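Anyone else keep sequences and structure tokens together like this?

Example one:
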Amino acid sequence: MVMFPNLNLPPSLKPLQHYLKAATEQETRDPVIAYWCRLFALQLGMKLDKKSKEASAVLLPIMDWLEKARTEMHENEAVTNDLVAKAHLENHAMKLFTWADTEDRAAHFNKNVVKAFYTSGIVMDVLETFGEVGLDISEKRRYAKWKATYLHNCLKNGETPIAGPPTDELELFSEPQGNAYGGETKDYQTPFAPDQGRTGWPSVPEMNQTPTPAERRQPVTPAYEPQAVIPPYVPVQPSPSMHQTPDPEIIKKVEKYCRFTMSALNYDDVPEAIKNLELALRLLKTGQ
């Protein structure tokens, strides 16, 4: 594989660092991922700054590397065929996401889980090379980036994270402010920013890797801790009040539980979805 040059990114091209670092991490592990990450970085760089001399000193070497790499991998359909390439990237992203999500739900909190979540989100960004991503990928990308930041901050501050998706604040699933290319935002920080003194990212974990005892933390709560005790379901007899328009505040709460239901289904958590549907139904029937 042709060597990639060392580049000094000017401020205007700082958002490229996420994809170039991901490419470096995958250089020997999966050259196809490295290729598409750098192509995505080039496309982003052309949008951000293609006129300054500092930007040209970065973009031209990337362009030259891509041309040589494409020639070298001309027989690899995951480079020459967009459909095959898209499937390759999606499979890689989902493999990382599934591993990280399984470890997180089992309360196995460590840097490898943070890295897997974060890298899966970056590769899902790169999928935009082939057009707009679907809702499933978009939701998982949002969650992966949020979870990477959340776990990183907890581990950094010596706190024990809560396993699994949040249940009380839907806002935690909101897309970080800024563009979809991983630029700096006020709500989302890259766990491995250069100013933290790192020379590179931790290795992407092998799927059978076991965290060390020092890295593993004991769970303090289950993956989904019920917010309210749901009493056994008892059919409610129809009453005249049930045919009236519910109070707007009740409607607002019902909508919230329905959104929680959809969020839980996005991550295949059927018990949580059932719990929130029952809460919504009970509110509509009883107002309580």
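And example two:
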Amino acid sequence: MNWSPDKTQVKSWNEWDTLRHVIVGKADDCHIPPEEPALDAKVPEDSDMRGQWGRRPQETIDRANELLDTFTDTLRKRGIRVDRPTPTDFSKPVTTPDFHTDSQFGCMPPRDVLLTVGHEILEATMSYRCRWFEYLCYRPLMQQYWEEDPNFRHEAAPKPRLTDADYHDDYLSEAIGIEKRLQWTAEKHFVTTEEEPLFDAADVLRFGKDLIVQHGFTTNLKGIEWLRRHFPDHRVRAVNFPGDPYPIHIDATFTPLRPGLILNNPNRRLPDEQRDYFKKNDWEIVDAAQPAHNTPPPLCYSSTWLSMNVLVLDLKTVCVEASEVYQMEQMEKLGMEVIPVELRDAYAFGGGLHCCTADVYRDGDCEDYFPNQ
């Protein structure tokens, strides 16, 4: 059945087929969460985030929402249906029998929480305590899709307990240093342990029959194995990027643009033994252009490599952050039509153009892009 703007259908098998329906996040009431093991490991030692928590200033929330609303309008003018989450009160604490944290986070990056594979949208386990209830922001949409699309499968991965046993103590030091961090990531020693399955949806890239999953801070091997068992008709492959001292989410490191072409962060190159899987199936992996900025925006968790956190609208069209002039130039040389989208002032709320969206429907079916096994 072809897509119709008047009928809800959930279907998306990859990152590049023509986008018809998407969720774009909101910055409402976003908080800098209190310290917790998963968060502390992510924040660089010299970051202005250390030691701060609480509701973000209203003027920054308003600015981020202005940019997200403008992005939404841009997509809608291109005929793409856009839905938005329902923010909850993120000032409320999260308390379970196993942990307590004094506030939550936000709902700007739906890509972190929601993984669309075919006709299913899966809610990730998440690995941050402050993000335990973030899925609730998307439940009104999930309920609507379930009522309107009889083929839609709404699934939720098992909620982890997130006790202290889920995190390595040695990552709690404020003086680890980049050299030690790089050594640990090369050894695949991350802040998360193998106590229970953990994964964020933003660690998963969809290549039709293949799901490429980053093993790092927010997704452990048990999480990858859980995905493998949950999607038995897919090939679920783990990757890692030793050059990243803060390996959280794959979409500022490894960005597929179309069948056969991937951008790779030149500071976080895919190891040769993992690269072979792509090479023998005629995929070209090229270094992404350098970011246009030397530092992230104020109070931002993410690196400058959000420059390559782009949203592909179809095989020839891509949204790139408007200030990332080098990335736009590279996209044009690769034969893409570039749509500049101003979003940098919203980075601090959860990421870039890929992060702040979650697919609902893309054209195309489940293809095998890796026939040579």
